[in-house]
Amino acid sequence: MTTAPVLHVPDEPLAHGEAWWGAVVEQGRDLKAVLTEEDGLALWLWSRWRSLASVGMCEDDLARIVVEYRREIWLWMAGERTWVQCCSGLIGRIDRRLAASDHHGG
User: Fold this and answer.
1) 67-88 burial string, b = 16+ CB within 10 Å, else e?
2) Most Cβ neighbours (<10 Å): which of 12, 44, 74, 76?
3) Are 75 and 86 in contact (CB under 8 A)?
C-alpha cells in the first residue's frame, strides 16, 4: 500500500481567481477550459502538489479531478464557498481517488 502525500491548502489564489471568474463571466469562456488551460487552476494546483507524482498521479489526472469538481470551484469563484472549504473538499476527493486506485491495484 502506497502512502499518499499529505496535501496542504495553499494560500488562496485571489488574483488568479478573479481572472478565472472574469474569463468565464465577462468573456463567456467555458469553465472547463479555463480550469485546465496553461494558466488555469489545475496547473496552479499541480505546481503546489507535485508530490502527487510520487504516488503515480500525473498532471492530467489532477486536471480530470479538478474538472469533476468544477461545481464547487465555481461556488468558490462566485463567493459562495471559502477557499478552505473548496480546496479541502478537493483534497478529500484526491485522497479518496488515490485510496480507491491503491485498493484496486492501481
Assistant:
1) bebbebbbebbeeebebeebbe
2) 76
3) yes
* Rounded Cα–Cα distance for residues 8 and 79 (Å): 21
Burial call 23-59: b when 16+ CB within 10 Å, e when fewer: bbeeeeeebeebbbbeebbbbbbbeebeebeeeebeb
Domain spans of the chain, in order of start: 14-103
**Pairwise CA distance, residues 37 & 32, whole Å:** 9
Please give the Cα distance from 104 to 15 (Å, whole number).
39
- Measure the CA dihedral 16/18/19/20, to 10°: 80
Hunting for cell 502538489 — which residue is that? Answer: 49
Question: Using one digit for the tens of pLDDT, what is the confidence trace for 12-67?
Answer: 999 999 999 999 999 999 999 999 999 999 999 999 999 999 999 999 999 999 99
